[in-house]
Amino acid sequence: MTAPVDAGEVRRLTRELLASHPPATTDRTGFLKARFDAGLAWVHYPAGLGGLDAPRTLQQIVDTELADAGAPDNDPRRIGIGLGMAAPTILRYGTDEQKRRFLRPLWVGEEVWCQLFSEPGAGSDLAALGTRAVRDAGGEWVVDGQKVWTSSAHVARWAILIARTDPDLPKHRGISYFICDMADPGVEVRPLRQITGEAEFNEVFLTGVRIPDSRRLGPVGDGWKVAQTTLMNERVSIGGARIPREGGMIGTAARTWRGRPELRTHDLHQRLLTLWVEAEVARLSGERLRQQLMAGQPGPEGSAMKLAFARLNQQISGLEVELLGDEGLLYSDWTMSRPELVDFTGRDAGYRYLRSKGNSIEGGTTEVLLNIVAERVLGLPSEPRNDKDIAWKDLSR
Amino acid sequence: MTELTAQPGQDEPAPMPDLLYSEAEEDLRAAVRALLADRADAPGVIARVESGTPYDPRLWKALAADIGAAGLLVPEKLGGQGATYREAAVVLEELGRSVAPVPYLTSSVVATETLLALAARDGAVVELLGELAAGRRTAALAVPFSAPAADEAQPASAVTGRLEGTITGVADAATADVLLVPTTDGLYAVETAADGVTVEPLVALDLTRPLATVVLHGAAGVLIADASSAVPAVRRGLLVGAGLLASEQLGIAEWCLTETVRYTRERRQFNRPVGSFQALKHRMAQLWLEIVSARAAARHAAGRLAADGPEALLAVAVAQAYCSGVAVHAAEECVQLHGGIGMTWEHPAHLYLKRAKADSIAYGTAGRHREVIAELVDLPAP
Ligand SMILES: Cc1cc2nc3c(=O)[nH]c(=O)nc-3n(C[C@H](O)[C@H](O)[C@H](O)COP(=O)(O)OP(=O)(O)OC[C@H]3O[C@@H](n4cnc5c(N)ncnc54)[C@H](O)[C@@H]3O)c2cc1C
């Protein structure tokens, strides 16, 4: 048996990587591939899959050493869905072959992922989805249906997809989980222009899309359980990084306040201070969550963070627009564009105000997350349901 | 836009304190909780406050001396436990959860910290500290309970060899053995039993923390610090009081939410538990979020108090600006979601509402603490 990987070993491997691939002279992708192969991508992943089977807490050492050395990172924002949702699901439910095929290009950023979950008729009630996957004689799955609000579908190479494989079962039981090839000719991506003027998400039409059975994740009919892993990771993916004081949107608002004394009013001052306190407290809660994770005691506080930041972002950006007065009446540019990622701080206050409205909808609405907190954390009774034991096909839609 | 003048935007100079609870702290919590469950359950507290003498000397002895809570902040060589603010904060969480009427915050935290800040090595101060740490006597700082540390510690009475003056709204003065009286001359220790000292109990909003007016009329005292060391010492006592009060507020909020969840799970209307109605579930989930945040803010303040600098000032101001509102909100929701029973004298919810509301004024209101923040992080008023 080999000794478990400890901090010293992680540090040694990191320095070895830096020595063999000096960031100054290595190209970005080359460096990231070498980092993956050295097991320093996500140290808690298995050896051979970008990790070292080491405690998750040791990742910090890698990240700090590499940042200090000016090494390129894999731009987690650009590959957020792959990193935060597809990867943990593949790791847990994927076959060895799937893991080997998908994890490396995902982490390196060569392949971007998107999430084909929501449908026009199934949002919060995701398990009501109607996209069909039917197995043909050759064992391949043929998928037909429509997905919506699909972020990054226009740049994605792969998608995680849930589809109905048995409409005769109650809705949670007839779903299966697939990896969908976005280059398949049956996949059509149409930009969906949003509140900010740009098209960050899409409608995705699936027409006779053929998916080999080797790209199914988990057993047939067990897709809802697999999707739980994805959704849990979606909500928890926040909280890893340390945020400095005034690190989020409050920093922009505070800088405007400091730099533009002519805009100040007493009413805005009171509101700014209240939000400043709330942002600082949210940051401290994030820090406490991080300390809990490091101590190996993950708690339900992750969903608290998502809820808190959604509200804060909306209130702070709203205040900022007001503070700017005449300038707040203007908007940078309504031209339709197709961004690769959401950039909150590089844009103007009007954009922040509008885009942050999505923070309480994407990844589960605030209302749905509050239900989850109430039932799973506080143990309050669920509301009476009338959809549990009825076949999906007999539900009213 | 100009560049920042303060340090916000970067991480604090000192490392982030541990915001979790240690095993030793959990042990201390368990001991305090067990004691309070035994000696200060809700019906007992209600019966006591009605008797006019809420203070229970047996409970105090068990908490202060047997568990050793009174001496947590006092170094071992002065007769205390030599623990940190974090342990004292855990005691306050439990005291908030039970609204037990004990002079812990006023004597073991504020008065004790004021004396400690004098950094005396021997004499009357050290002797008194030993007595307070052992729980044999209690002391109260003779300033109004509402006084924030950020105010210049205003001498409440003048001196001409003997003390003269009236100080209103002093918390726990009626049960204190000794009053620490700030004057223009410096800080005096005055025995409450001495000639010329009258402590007149007031009818307080919070039944569980008695207030009194202290009238000094030619009272004799011992000068324990001159004005130049008294002012920062009093300020330090009040700062630590405000910082650890956040933990009491956290405890209040936690009790209120726990009880409300318990009650609404059982209480049935419209043929289902009222706790299954989403309008109520969301309100309770919202309180949970606030409590998660309040815990981080309160732990942070307790962790930062160990250092005396701008980081401690800011951490305390943030904790107070946040936690007092959470405690009041939780207590108000507790009354509302209990319906009629929440309005009764018999149900303990009112004790928590009264304590929470009084605490929101104690050691400075949230608004006052926000003013402090505005100064510390350079967000000036128009
Ligand atoms: C910017 C953005 C990006 C997104 N990206 C993706 C993506 O990449 N992939 C993907 O699959 N999806 C994506 N989504 C979809 C997102 O997950 C859904 O919009 C969300 O789950 C809500 O579903 P819905 O839009 O159908 O609203 P609905 O479910 O119809 O909700 C309407 C309203 O009813 C409320 N509501 C619904 N059910 C309940 C309930 N039980 N109790 C109380 N209130 C309730 C909701 O909170 C909301 O206010 C994205 C959404 C946004 C805004």
Automatic annotation (TrEMBL), chain A:
Domain Acyl-CoA dehydrogenase/oxidase N-terminal: 30-110
UniProt keyword annotation of Flavoprotein present: yes
Pfam families registered for this protein in UniProt: Acyl-CoA_dh_1, Acyl-CoA_dh_M, Acyl-CoA_dh_N
Domain of life of the native organism: Bacteria
GO molecular function: flavin adenine dinucleotide binding; oxidoreductase activity, acting on the CH-CH group of donors
GO CC, one annotated term: plasma membrane
Domain Acyl-CoA oxidase/dehydrogenase middle: 114-199
Sequence ranges assigned to domain Acyl-CoA dehydrogenase/oxidase C-terminal in this UniProt record: 221-378
Family, per entry: Belongs to the acyl-CoA dehydrogenase family.
Entry protein name: Acyl-CoA dehydrogenase
Organism of derivation: Streptomyces finlayi
